[in-house]
Amino acid sequence: MSISLSTTGRSGLVYLVGAGMLWGTGGLLGTLLGRATGLSPIAVATCRLAVGGLLLVALLAATRRPWPRNLLAWRRIGAVAVLAATFQACYFGAVAASSVSVATLITIGASPVVVAVLEQLTGRRVVDRRRAATIGLALSGLALLVGVPSDEVGSAGLLAGAALAVVAAAAFATVTVISARPVPGLDPMTTTGLGFTGGAALLAPLAITTGITFAPNIGSFALLAALGLVPTAIAYTLYFRGLPDAGPGTAAILALLEPLTGAILAAIVLGERLTPLGMLGAALLTVALILASSRPSTGETTGRMD
Q1: Which residue would you say has higher pLDDT here, 77 or 260?
Q2: What is the distance, to the nearest Å, from the Cα of residue 136 to the centroid of all Cα atoms in its chain?
Q3: How many other C-beta atoms lie within 10 A of the C-beta of residue 127?
Q4: Closest CA to 197 of 165, 228, 168
């Protein structure tokens, strides 16, 4: 079994690395779309889920792929829809209540910790010294890369933002853990397409209150299509594809490729400069990602039989 898991685990790593790097384009594309259209962050998130989900649904229909036929598959799709909507709503609520740095640091940083706790409690994988050290190194790097909250954030806003960010992290961690177990008759593309379309429907009433319309032009439509396709439809399909092979613990760490890639793109495209501490954080994150990717073949699969 260890040989098979080692082979499939490495193929899963390729999908997860691709997903993390594509997620890194989401912040840049979302920022540019917001500037071009004036949409609020929650409206951008809703459009992102809707476009990404509907593009995949259209592809499923065009290729005449059969729809899920069992109740278990539809339960998984429903869970992904609810968790995706919860993640997006709570993350952007955390941004509004506190700051981008607080929301990003807590949401992305807490996710691998929550996954580790869930796996420890369910007996799927023991948190050994190597994994604890990797998570600690990753969180240190993330804190240095993202930066600490500014003094402009009040205590009430900081607490509210932190609470919402923790809920967002729990939602992402939960979808990571449950999606690591495949459902018969349900593939990653169908999960992403139908799940995210449902998530967009759940978020739509909230987005409408902030305004979800904008003046149409080629540039804004191109940005919207890119946001829905690259860091959403393609990235999450890759993520759900790689999860069963690599395992949720490794996946949660590799998701930290998102802020690393985003910081590099922001420096190149938006002219934002990384501070020396930010560069140190990027280096620590890189080491943590390498450690997670080069884990022993049996480490991720303790307690797993799938």
Answers
A1: 77
A2: 19
A3: 14
A4: 228
